[in-house]
Fold:
Amino acid sequence: MDINEKRIASLRTIMGTLSQKEFAEAHDLDASYLSQLLNGHRKLGEKAALNLELKIGLAAGTLTSPPGEESTTARTNVVRLPTRASKDKNFVLIPHLDIAASMGHGKAAPDMHIEVIRDMTVHLDWLKMQGLTFSTVENLAIITGDGDSMSGTFADGDALLVDRGISEVRTDAIYVFTLDGDLYIKRLQRLTGGLLRMISDNPIYPPITIDESMIERMHIQARVLLAWNAKKL
Structure:
């Protein structure tokens, strides 16, 4: 796969399930130009890729220097896709990733190529009203919880708003992380000596102490900020 093909593949991943027309309208792009790129009738050169990054609001290098196939072997639950801009500057479109993270005994982390399956449009003032703090709006995403070990805080199948810009445990909170290749959503508590305690809010699951050897095999993927709970009334 040459660099042009890699750039187009990255662009398709960023588009997710949006049609060419929807994606072009969302980012004020020329639909004909986008179609020519995707159909191979026009090359996505370095300068054009850089301009597209700026236009869409991508991190530098997302299109100009996309990862090669050798880089996709690493496993993670986070795809570094930016939050797509809404036409109304007061709203933000938060990507909903096609991924479920385990709130129980852990489940295998998916490969890097995770597509956005839908977006949720949220007013920026609403985020502020919730008292949420996060790294950047671009790092916000929505994933789905799986399992019952966090029951009492959120339930199996709940949509979870996460901050993908958090990669270390600085405060006691609920995190999305991988450990020995398995993906978890758990409360992490810092202990003396640099240790961590992994806590399930469902009391039937006992806490687990994560020692130094386990911490070396642990990777923080995101911090959970909020759960959208669907409760029958």
